[in-house]
What does this fold into?
Amino acid sequence: MRYQLAPLYCRPWTLNGISARLIESHYENNYGAALNRLNAISEEIERLDLGSAPNPSLARLKRDEIVALNSTLLHELYFASLGGDGRVVPDALASAIAKDFGSVDRWRQEFVGIAAGLAGGSGWVLLTYVPRDGRLINQIASEHNQSIAGGVPILALDMYEHAYHLEFGANAGAYIAAFMRNIDLSAVKQRYDDAIKVAPPRPLEQKEFADVPSISVEEVREMMKSGTPVQIIDTRPKHYTTKAQDIMDGAVWRDPERLNDWIGTLSKTEPVVTFCVYGFHIGCQTASALRKAGFDARYMAGGHYAWKAIKGPVKLFE
Ligand SMILES: [Fe+2]
It folds into this structure.
């Protein structure tokens, strides 16, 4: 694989307080160098003898590749972040930012604050969209990596000294202010539009239980905290419970294979939550059977271990 150089995206002569000379040097000496390094690393990887014995160079080269590739990608995003006036945030972007940061001002303060904290050191400040949560977040990326897994950066501020030293010396604050004055916010908005089209990670699908409603462990915790009456039934299989040490506090264990023995003890006026070990089958089957019998039953997604993972209280299982 040979990576191709991207043309300079912003027009250096239009920038306000960031000189063409600085951008040219940055583009040629740092972006260009990263791209050349990336291509050299790819070539080296292709030349490796990957025969039977593990090649010790491979892991090192693959690590170097991440750094060079991310440096390339982030520099392209950095140059594409400049060329605007940094002032007018398009409406859709402004409301997305306000939703996730409180206000545009608050986002700006946080972004600039992170950059100021990197002054004299190195790293990136990125505005990144996380499809899993459908939200924007400011992040630091040091060593060109530490990207948020699955995140889509839409704005990049280069805080490596090479990005400003030539013109601003140690005055990183002036460089940050100049960057903020030159953000092309309509381009950021376009990248945001593209980013939100990325699908979130696929959720767990249990087609056979599609008609059985579930409840999250967080919702169950809220019900318990608020004192909402709820009957919580631990239906982990008997063979499993013989080695189980703990049980969700507030739950009673009932043998899922003997449903008919205990169904009569449940109230039909209070909701029922059932769960098993991981939330796959037994808890769903029990909830399904209870619903057929006229109970307002749901299964707790993720089961016993999801409850433990949110540090929900447990007690000794006897
Ligand atoms: Fe740079």
